[in-house]
Amino acid sequence: MQGPHDISAQTDTRRNLGVAWSRQALGRPDMSCHPLAGDASFRRYFRLTDGNDSWVLMDAPPEREDSRPFVDVARRLQAGGVEAPHILAQDLEQGFLLLEDLGDELLRDDLHGGNADHWMPRLFTLLQRFASRVDAQGLPDYDRQRLLTELELFTTWYLEKHKGLRLSRAEQKVWEALCTRLIDSALDQPRVFVHRDFHSANLLRAPDAGIGVIDFQDAVRGPLSYDFASLVWDRYIPWTRPQLEAWMEDMRRRVAADVAPDTWTRWCDWMGLQRNIKIVGIFARLHYRDGRAGYLEMIPRFWGYVQDVLPRYEETREFHALLERLQCAP
Within this chain, do residues 124 and 93 fall inside the same structural domain, yes or no? Predict the structure, then answer.
């Protein structure tokens, strides 16, 4: 008798095509297939097994996802000494990649306040490697327009769509002034390889006790502090301000020793603001445009991050006051 899982597998044409392609690519006709957790894109992942051997099949429908950046960035990371899954076979026309299986032990499930002093220095070393050894030449530039387009997700999808608020002309000027400050700060920084979603759910405890990096296909050439801000203002683990400031100084000494501490702290804080404001907008868009359940519930943590940093700087307090006046908290 077939259960729902078997019926679903029979009617999932792309899954069946991908498994058949993988079996032929590896010469393993008897491998079985099990779905893995996906991400916010149209990509899907499956673990293929044959005895004690396993692989990961990435299904990225070519009309929805371009897999070429994934292939390019994976090679850049490996060349820089970063542990990323090796690509064992590829068919970009069909949208299939066969990847080395680094396991599914997410750092998210192990990192906590009691062991942060063990993990964070290792992660900072990984970020050093991004900055010094991973080639960023030829990657898309995290330029002014890209940074601004991301920020505008907040006004379009969170303020207007979710909260039903439209800024007046005077309020729009306050918003534009904030955007200019955050973007200028980002562009003042050295340009390096930026993963762009570097946090505990995209890091694996690899089988060799290393740290495996995944979900890197959106990498860009951008600000030095971006991945650090992504890591420490995490969607799953909030850290205290004293912890954040201690880690900022640790990271400054590693990658920006010639930058004044207060300048580096501002770079990190304002980069975190840009990212977290953007994320609030992205999560609203995922809910309203893409029908992805669960993302609105994640907004309060990122809103809290924004509300913590805005009043710390004279230049951003006017926007903080605007948000308070509009009463647009989640």
Answer: no
Instruction: Give the rounded distance of the alpha carbon of 34 from its chain centre.
Output: 24
Specify burial of residue 118 (Cβ count, 10 A radius: 0-12, 13-18, 19+): exposed
Closest-CA residue to 185 (of 121, 229, 232): 229
54 near 98, Cβ under 8 Å? no
Beta-carbon contacts of residue 316 (< 8 Å; ≥ 6 apart): 178, 181, 270, 273, 309, 310
CA 55 to chain centre: 23
Model pTM above 0.85? yes
Q: Residue 3 above 60 pLDDT?
A: no
Would you tell me how many other CB atoms lie within 10 Å of the CB of residue 202?
A: 20
Instruction: Count structural domains, the chain.
Output: 2
The CATH number of whichever domain residue 39 belongs to comes to 3.30.200.20
Domain boundary among 48, 69, 100: 100
Task: Report the chain's mean pLDDT, rounded to a whole number.
Answer: 93
What's the CA gap between 160 and 13, in Å, rounded? 39
The pLDDT assigned to 4 comes to 38
User: If you compute the radius of gyration of the chain from its CA atoms, what whole number of angstroms results?
Assistant: 21
